[in-house]
Amino acid sequence: MSYIDYEVADKIATITLNRPEAANAQNSALLDELDAAWTRAATDDEVVVIVLNAAGKHFSAGHDLKDDSWPEPEKITLDWIYQTESRRYLEYTLRWRNVPKPSIAAVQGRCIAGGLMLCWPCDLIIAADNALFSDPVVMMGIGGVEYHGHTWELGPRKAKEILFTGRAVTAQEAEQTGMVNMVVPLDELPAKTAEVAGRIAKMPPFGLRQAKRAVNQTLDVQGFYAAVQSVFDVHSTGHGNALSVSGYPILVDLEQMKTNIK
Question: Per the confidence metrics, is the pTM higher than 0.85?
Answer without folding.
Answer: yes
